[in-house]
Amino acid sequence: APARHAAEPAPRPPLAGVRAVVLTHAWLGTFCTELLGLAGADVIQVEARKRPDTWRAGYQGVIPAQVRTRPTARHAWNCSPLFNSVNLNKRGITLDLDHPEGRDLFKRLVARADVVAENYSPRVVHNLGVDYESLRAVRSDLIMLSLNAYGASGPWRDVVGIGGTIEPTSGMSSLLGYPGGPPLNSGQMLPDPVGGWYGFGAIVTALRHRDRTGEGQYIDLSMQESNQTLIGDAMLEALWTGRARTRLGNRHPTFAPHGIYPAQGEEQWVALAAEDDAQWRALCEAAGAGWERDVRFASNEARKASEDALDAAIAAWTATQARDALAPRLAAAGVPAAPVRDALEVAACPVFRERGRVVEVAHPETGTWWHVGVPATLERTPGAVTRPSPCLGEHSAEVLAEELGVSEAEYAALVRKGVTGEGPPD
């Protein structure tokens, strides 16, 4: 890239100047609003001292063993790897919205914000008096996202859900599993980050709409519906033909081979496929096992018809090969292939670190750890990790003073009343 002139201002991230006051918690909502922060928005995360984010593991939680030896690690609720992984670039405050003063302070913050986001069940924000109709009276062009399991309207609006329950109700689990076996969940609560991405996209779209029209809007986003888009082809197939797609394991509906095969060593696996005859010939040449002479594998149709035998033959060969040598060798020969890595291997992958997808972040209690950072490289408006996830109430005094002019004496009085502050309630 060409060097910038010394007088040229540093590039700003894409959402610089946008402020979001958010009531998000757990994974779905906090990941959505972390994306706003990573894109440069000023995100103020609101918790309550008597009801902190569930991903902090509560006041009776235990500091993880890997962190416990660090002298700065003092409070379990500030050392949760779950919470600290999805709240980067946020300022954290506490406000008791059950208290009239807490609710008033929240609305005064909303008056200075562009976005409010929450992922409580629909009844909660109405009971607290911070639903969209109440908040738009404070700021008429407000953008508010409600990111719920089944949406803020409809017959399931009051049904509470998490990623593990959304997988079956969205239809995803019906496709996960092996031929002849039961439906399975992914084991990763996949619907949470999927819904978070949709929420982020909806907010950015609403901001663009407001730039053009001056209008705010309410976004009612269902995690279930967001995740149904991942299986849209299977849903249409069932609607149009009346036939539900069967579970395929790691196989592909139309070509073979396509799967996860054992490699040399314990729990070592390699993914490979052959989408056409040219890739199949390249795989045969790399294996040198004579598969090209087997009539059962002479065409894609024949391979699909003999897929059990095909997978067994490939697995017997790959089990003799070192994963990290085999995958690049096949890829170089034109065969789609990759090593199957676990989470720790992914975090340590030099490609992700060199590209800035995984970055070191220093936290005041847990110390320095690797975290997933900005998910995209933007040349003109790069984002960056600028601060760790906040300790509970860490920025309460700062935000209330800077944004609302709350004095030290007023803040101390609010702390005594339990409206704000740091750590557990007195």
Structural overview:
The protein is of the alpha/beta class. The chain contains 18 helices and 11 strands. The protein has helices spanning 28-38, 65-68, 81-85, 100-110, 122-128, 132-136, 163-170, 191-213, 223-228, 232-241, 277-287, 300-305, 307-318, 323-332, 343-348, 350-354, 396-404, 408-416, and strands spanning 19-23, 42-47, 90-94, 115-118, 143-148, 217-222, 258-262, 269-273, 337-340, 358-363, 367-372. The strands form 3 sheets. Strands 3-2-1-4-5-6 form a 6-stranded parallel sheet, sandwiched between helices. The chain is elongated. The N and C termini lie far apart (54 Å).
Mean pLDDT: 95
What is the radius of gyration computed over CA atoms, rounded to a whole number of angstroms? 26 Å
Oligomer: single chain
Distance between the termini: 54 Å
- Order of adjacent strands in the largest pleated sheet: 3-2-1-4-5-6
Order of H and E elements:
EHEHHEHEHHEHHEHHEEHHHHEHHEEHH
Extended strand count: 11
Helix content: 25-40%
Spans with pLDDT under 50 lasting ≥5 residues?
Answer: none
Strand content: 5-15%
Largest sheet: 6 strands, parallel
Tally of DSSP helical segments: 18
The secondary structure category is: alpha/beta
Overall geometry comes to: elongated
